[in-house]
Amino acid sequence: MSAVMQPEKRAEDAIVSIRGLTKTYANGFSALKGIDLEIRRGEIFALLGPNGAGKTTLISIVCGIVNASAGVVIADGFDNVREFRRARARIGLVPQELHTDAFETVWATCNFSRGLFGFKANPEHIEHVLKDLSLWDKRNDRIMTLSGGMKRRVLIAKALAHEPSILFLDEPTAGVDVELRHDMWNVVRRLRERGTTIILTTHYIEEAEEMADRVGVILKGKIILVEDKDVLMKKLGKRELALHLNAPLSAVPMALTDLNLELQDNGSVLVYRFDAGGEATGISRLLNRLGAESIQFHDLKTSETSLEEIFVNLVKERA
């Protein structure tokens, strides 16, 4: 085994270190192609990618559910193959599917989940988890009687029952309403504040934009980008300045065609696009030139490219 794959060689702040991870199935399909990735201790990391990109396969291998074809995964200092039990005990997993023990009570299933990892009973901890997830009043209810959103919370409670340092959330808010989604975002933030590292996959781009510290994009089994969210937004984002004109224009004046301008709303709005990360926006020059052309406006608004637009553009470029 190469020295770079040993836990002592990983970055000091990495709680999950993945090196050379590949997965090829018996039919020849290559789901993962040499994944190298490090998750920082205490961060919220969002893994984005279209369906079939390899997100769930990657999580399943890190959690020990699926065997890798090659590569090494270190979870909180432990190799997840050679030291499987110790590595797996550091990990909590909230799966995408709503598989629950339908006839068990919320309290019983959480206690049982804790015992599966060899931890002694700790009623105080289970109580704390259930209260934090607004499940305390449901603790004696059978899971089959709960709503879909409450069942999703039970999955999180089960994953936290053994006090993991790493929590994987695979599409955690799929199928839940907007209000519950925001409640669960708050739960995730509180977990991070207490030191839990969160890795989530999501189809809700606003989820990553709202919560993540860093964003990784996976496409066709390869990590094509890992970046701090704010840096990514600044680096790849574009801003728009919309000027609401006093008098509509039929076309952009010839004297201004060298600028990145577009008319909208039947010529009543002039849109100027510029690089959000650039040193100079060119707005002052634009306003001066508009004045020289006697083009007046009564309102202006700026907007910034969303993470969703950045993600879509990245996938298009690499497809």
Describe the structure.
- The protein is α/β, with parallel strands linked by helices.
- It has helices spanning 55-62, 84-88, 106-116, 123-132, 148-160, 178-193, 205-211, 229-236, 283-292, 307-318; strands at 14-24, 30-40, 44-48, 70-75, 78-79, 91-94, 166-170, 197-201, 214-219, 222-228, 238-245, 261-264, 269-275, 297-304.
- It has 2 domains: 3-233, Rossmann fold (3-Layer(aba) Sandwich), CATH 3.40.50.300; 238-318, 2-Layer Sandwich (Alpha-Beta Plaits), CATH 3.30.70.
- The chain is 31% helix and 28% strand.
- The strands form 3 sheets. Strands 6-7-8-3-9-10 form a 6-stranded mixed sheet, sandwiched between helices. Strands 2-1-4-5 form a 4-stranded antiparallel sheet.
- The longest helix has 16 residues, at 178-193.
Quick summary of this structure?
The chain has 319 residues and is an alpha/beta fold.
CATH T-level topology of the largest domain: Rossmann fold
Strand residue percentage: 25-35%
Order of helices and strands: EEEHEEHEHHHEHEHEEHEEEHEH
Q: Which secondary-structure class do the elements indicate? A: alpha/beta
**Percent helix range:** 25-40%
List keywords for this structure.
Rossmann fold, 4-stranded antiparallel sheet, 14 strands, alpha/beta, single chain, 319 residues, disordered N terminus
